[in-house]
Amino acid sequence: MLAGDAAHQMPPFLGQGLNSGIRDAANLAWRLARVTTGAAPQTLLDDYAAERGDQIEWIVRESVLLGGIICTTDLKEAAQRDEALKRSSSLRELAQTSRPLRTGTLRDDPGAGSLGLQARVGIGGRVRMLDELSSEPGRFMLIGADCDPTEALDPALAACWRSLDGMSVHFGTPGWVDVDGTYREWFDALDARVVLVRPDFHVFGTAPGDTASTNLLVADLLRRVTHRKTSHEAKSQAASWRGGGNARCSS
Questions:
Q1: Is the pTM of this model over 0.90?
Q2: 218 and 211 in contact (C-beta within 8 Å)?
Protein backbone atom coordinates (compact mmCIF):
# COMPACT_ATOMS: atom_id res chain seq x y z
CA MET A 1 0.00 0.00 0.00
CA LEU A 2 1.20 3.51 -0.83
CA ALA A 3 0.75 6.46 1.52
CA GLY A 4 2.13 9.97 1.92
CA ASP A 5 4.67 11.26 -0.58
CA ALA A 6 4.91 7.79 -2.13
CA ALA A 7 1.29 8.17 -3.24
CA HIS A 8 1.05 11.87 -4.06
CA GLN A 9 3.40 14.78 -4.70
CA MET A 10 1.64 17.71 -3.09
CA PRO A 11 2.15 21.30 -4.28
CA PRO A 12 3.31 23.43 -1.32
CA PHE A 13 0.80 26.27 -1.47
CA LEU A 14 -1.69 24.92 1.08
CA GLY A 15 0.87 23.19 3.28
CA GLN A 16 -0.95 19.87 2.90
CA GLY A 17 1.87 17.43 2.14
CA LEU A 18 2.51 16.21 5.70
CA ASN A 19 -1.16 16.62 6.66
CA SER A 20 -2.23 14.43 3.75
CA GLY A 21 0.32 11.78 4.73
CA ILE A 22 -1.05 11.74 8.28
CA ARG A 23 -4.59 11.38 6.92
CA ASP A 24 -3.40 8.50 4.74
CA ALA A 25 -1.83 6.74 7.72
CA ALA A 26 -4.89 7.22 9.94
CA ASN A 27 -7.20 5.94 7.22
CA LEU A 28 -5.04 2.93 6.40
CA ALA A 29 -3.93 1.78 9.87
CA TRP A 30 -7.27 0.56 11.22
CA ARG A 31 -8.04 -1.23 7.96
CA LEU A 32 -4.71 -3.07 7.98
CA ALA A 33 -5.21 -3.98 11.63
CA ARG A 34 -8.48 -5.73 10.80
CA VAL A 35 -7.39 -7.34 7.52
CA THR A 36 -4.08 -8.73 8.80
CA THR A 37 -5.82 -10.41 11.75
CA GLY A 38 -8.42 -11.97 9.47
CA ALA A 39 -11.27 -9.97 11.01
CA ALA A 40 -12.10 -8.22 7.72
CA PRO A 41 -11.84 -9.08 4.02
CA GLN A 42 -9.09 -7.57 1.89
CA THR A 43 -11.73 -5.59 0.02
CA LEU A 44 -11.80 -3.25 3.02
CA LEU A 45 -8.49 -1.90 1.71
CA ASP A 46 -10.15 -0.89 -1.57
CA ASP A 47 -12.02 1.84 0.26
CA TYR A 48 -8.71 3.33 1.42
CA ALA A 49 -7.75 4.11 -2.17
CA ALA A 50 -11.24 5.36 -3.01
CA GLU A 51 -11.48 7.70 -0.02
CA ARG A 52 -7.98 9.11 -0.05
CA GLY A 53 -7.68 9.33 -3.83
CA ASP A 54 -10.82 11.44 -4.14
CA GLN A 55 -9.82 13.81 -1.34
CA ILE A 56 -6.19 14.12 -2.43
CA GLU A 57 -7.19 14.95 -6.00
CA TRP A 58 -9.35 17.79 -4.70
CA ILE A 59 -6.58 19.14 -2.42
CA VAL A 60 -4.04 19.06 -5.26
CA ARG A 61 -6.41 21.05 -7.49
CA GLU A 62 -6.96 23.60 -4.72
CA SER A 63 -3.20 23.87 -4.14
CA VAL A 64 -2.52 24.46 -7.83
CA LEU A 65 -5.27 27.09 -7.93
CA LEU A 66 -3.82 28.92 -4.96
CA GLY A 67 -0.33 28.59 -6.43
CA GLY A 68 -1.51 30.40 -9.54
CA ILE A 69 -2.74 33.26 -7.37
CA ILE A 70 0.42 33.40 -5.25
CA CYS A 71 2.93 33.07 -8.09
CA THR A 72 1.65 35.87 -10.31
CA THR A 73 4.74 37.68 -11.66
CA ASP A 74 3.16 40.25 -13.97
CA LEU A 75 2.98 43.52 -12.01
CA LYS A 76 -0.33 44.61 -13.54
CA GLU A 77 -1.96 41.22 -12.92
CA ALA A 78 -0.57 41.16 -9.38
CA ALA A 79 -2.07 44.59 -8.66
CA GLN A 80 -5.47 43.44 -9.99
CA ARG A 81 -5.19 40.30 -7.87
CA ASP A 82 -4.43 42.32 -4.74
CA GLU A 83 -7.42 44.61 -5.28
CA ALA A 84 -9.71 41.65 -5.93
CA LEU A 85 -8.56 39.96 -2.72
CA LYS A 86 -9.09 43.14 -0.70
CA ARG A 87 -12.68 43.33 -1.95
CA SER A 88 -13.39 39.63 -1.46
CA SER A 89 -15.69 38.63 1.39
CA SER A 90 -14.79 34.96 1.11
CA LEU A 91 -11.01 34.81 1.55
CA ARG A 92 -11.35 31.75 3.76
CA GLU A 93 -12.82 29.84 0.84
CA LEU A 94 -9.49 30.23 -0.96
CA ALA A 95 -7.68 28.26 1.74
CA GLN A 96 -9.85 25.20 2.30
CA THR A 97 -7.60 22.29 3.14
CA SER A 98 -10.09 19.45 3.31
CA ARG A 99 -13.64 18.40 2.62
CA PRO A 100 -15.84 15.52 3.77
CA LEU A 101 -15.20 12.09 2.32
CA ARG A 102 -17.69 11.32 -0.43
CA THR A 103 -17.18 7.61 -1.02
CA GLY A 104 -15.84 4.53 0.74
CA THR A 105 -16.56 2.95 4.13
CA LEU A 106 -19.45 5.26 4.88
CA ARG A 107 -23.16 5.05 5.46
CA ASP A 108 -25.44 6.75 2.97
CA ASP A 109 -26.54 9.72 5.05
CA PRO A 110 -25.76 13.47 4.97
CA GLY A 111 -23.46 13.42 8.02
CA ALA A 112 -21.27 10.55 6.82
CA GLY A 113 -17.74 11.44 5.75
CA SER A 114 -17.39 14.56 7.87
CA LEU A 115 -14.91 14.74 10.72
CA GLY A 116 -16.10 13.91 14.22
CA LEU A 117 -16.25 16.81 16.62
CA GLN A 118 -13.33 17.34 19.00
CA ALA A 119 -14.41 19.66 21.82
CA ARG A 120 -14.37 20.06 25.59
CA VAL A 121 -16.29 17.58 27.73
CA GLY A 122 -16.49 17.07 31.46
CA ILE A 123 -16.91 14.08 33.74
CA GLY A 124 -16.13 13.50 37.40
CA GLY A 125 -15.04 17.10 37.86
CA ARG A 126 -12.47 16.90 35.05
CA VAL A 127 -12.72 18.98 31.87
CA ARG A 128 -10.67 17.92 28.86
CA MET A 129 -10.98 17.46 25.11
CA LEU A 130 -13.05 14.43 24.12
CA ASP A 131 -10.13 12.22 23.09
CA GLU A 132 -8.33 12.92 26.37
CA LEU A 133 -11.18 11.53 28.47
CA SER A 134 -12.51 8.77 26.21
CA SER A 135 -9.78 6.20 26.74
CA GLU A 136 -7.21 5.80 23.99
CA PRO A 137 -8.09 7.26 20.57
CA GLY A 138 -8.25 5.15 17.44
CA ARG A 139 -11.36 3.10 18.27
CA PHE A 140 -14.85 2.93 16.82
CA MET A 141 -16.99 5.22 18.93
CA LEU A 142 -20.74 5.65 19.39
CA ILE A 143 -21.61 9.12 20.67
CA GLY A 144 -25.08 9.66 22.09
CA ALA A 145 -26.73 13.05 22.56
CA ASP A 146 -29.00 11.93 25.43
CA CYS A 147 -28.19 8.38 26.55
CA ASP A 148 -25.78 5.50 26.03
CA PRO A 149 -26.42 4.13 22.49
CA THR A 150 -25.13 0.67 23.40
CA GLU A 151 -28.06 0.19 25.79
CA ALA A 152 -30.34 0.06 22.73
CA LEU A 153 -28.38 -2.70 21.00
CA ASP A 154 -29.60 -6.25 20.63
CA PRO A 155 -27.42 -8.43 22.93
CA ALA A 156 -25.79 -10.30 20.07
CA LEU A 157 -25.21 -7.07 18.17
CA ALA A 158 -23.72 -5.54 21.31
CA ALA A 159 -21.28 -8.47 21.45
CA CYS A 160 -20.30 -7.79 17.84
CA TRP A 161 -19.73 -4.14 18.76
CA ARG A 162 -17.45 -5.17 21.60
CA SER A 163 -15.55 -7.46 19.23
CA LEU A 164 -14.65 -4.33 17.27
CA ASP A 165 -13.26 -2.86 20.52
CA GLY A 166 -16.00 -0.28 20.12
CA MET A 167 -16.72 2.19 22.89
CA SER A 168 -19.43 4.72 23.62
CA VAL A 169 -19.79 8.08 25.29
CA HIS A 170 -22.95 10.05 25.87
CA PHE A 171 -24.28 13.28 27.26
CA GLY A 172 -27.30 13.91 29.46
CA THR A 173 -27.96 12.50 32.92
CA PRO A 174 -25.90 10.69 34.19
CA GLY A 175 -23.59 11.11 31.21
CA TRP A 176 -20.85 13.49 30.24
CA VAL A 177 -21.08 17.28 30.33
CA ASP A 178 -21.15 19.21 27.07
CA VAL A 179 -19.05 22.03 28.55
CA ASP A 180 -19.49 24.64 25.82
CA GLY A 181 -22.68 23.38 24.19
CA THR A 182 -20.77 22.52 21.02
CA TYR A 183 -21.94 18.91 20.94
CA ARG A 184 -25.55 19.99 21.22
CA GLU A 185 -25.03 22.22 18.18
CA TRP A 186 -23.22 19.40 16.37
CA PHE A 187 -26.04 16.91 16.89
CA ASP A 188 -28.58 19.52 15.79
CA ALA A 189 -26.59 20.31 12.63
CA LEU A 190 -26.44 16.57 11.80
CA ASP A 191 -30.13 16.15 12.67
CA ALA A 192 -29.13 13.09 14.70
CA ARG A 193 -29.03 11.81 18.27
CA VAL A 194 -26.43 9.07 17.71
CA VAL A 195 -23.20 9.41 15.72
CA LEU A 196 -20.83 6.54 14.89
CA VAL A 197 -17.21 7.69 14.44
CA ARG A 198 -14.48 5.58 12.83
CA PRO A 199 -10.98 5.11 14.28
CA ASP A 200 -9.66 7.79 11.89
CA PHE A 201 -12.21 10.26 13.34
CA HIS A 202 -14.44 10.39 10.27
CA VAL A 203 -18.17 9.92 10.80
CA PHE A 204 -19.36 6.56 9.49
CA GLY A 205 -23.03 7.46 9.87
CA THR A 206 -25.76 8.82 12.11
CA ALA A 207 -29.12 7.75 13.53
CA PRO A 208 -32.17 9.46 15.07
CA GLY A 209 -31.52 7.58 18.31
CA ASP A 210 -34.46 5.16 18.57
CA THR A 211 -33.72 1.48 19.16
CA ALA A 212 -34.29 0.33 15.58
CA SER A 213 -32.21 3.05 13.94
CA THR A 214 -29.33 2.59 16.39
CA ASN A 215 -29.25 -1.17 15.78
CA LEU A 216 -29.28 -0.67 12.02
CA LEU A 217 -26.49 1.90 12.22
CA VAL A 218 -24.20 -0.56 14.00
CA ALA A 219 -25.36 -3.39 11.74
CA ASP A 220 -24.42 -1.35 8.67
CA LEU A 221 -20.95 -0.77 10.09
CA LEU A 222 -20.45 -4.47 10.80
CA ARG A 223 -21.38 -5.37 7.24
CA ARG A 224 -18.76 -2.95 5.98
CA VAL A 225 -15.84 -3.83 8.25
CA THR A 226 -16.30 -7.56 8.85
CA HIS A 227 -16.64 -10.49 6.42
CA ARG A 228 -19.61 -9.43 4.37
CA LYS A 229 -22.71 -11.54 4.01
CA THR A 230 -24.78 -12.21 0.93
CA SER A 231 -27.66 -9.84 0.29
CA HIS A 232 -30.14 -12.43 1.55
CA GLU A 233 -28.21 -12.99 4.78
CA ALA A 234 -27.78 -9.27 5.34
CA LYS A 235 -31.49 -8.59 4.87
CA SER A 236 -32.41 -11.42 7.22
CA GLN A 237 -30.07 -10.17 9.91
CA ALA A 238 -31.25 -6.57 9.52
CA ALA A 239 -34.83 -7.75 9.95
CA SER A 240 -33.76 -9.61 13.09
CA TRP A 241 -32.22 -6.47 14.55
CA ARG A 242 -35.28 -4.40 13.72
CA GLY A 243 -37.40 -6.85 15.62
CA GLY A 244 -35.02 -7.24 18.53
CA GLY A 245 -34.33 -10.88 17.72
CA ASN A 246 -31.09 -12.74 18.21
CA ALA A 247 -28.26 -12.23 15.76
CA ARG A 248 -24.91 -13.88 15.24
CA CYS A 249 -21.73 -11.84 14.90
CA SER A 250 -20.28 -12.20 11.38
CA SER A 251 -16.63 -11.77 12.27
A1: no
A2: no
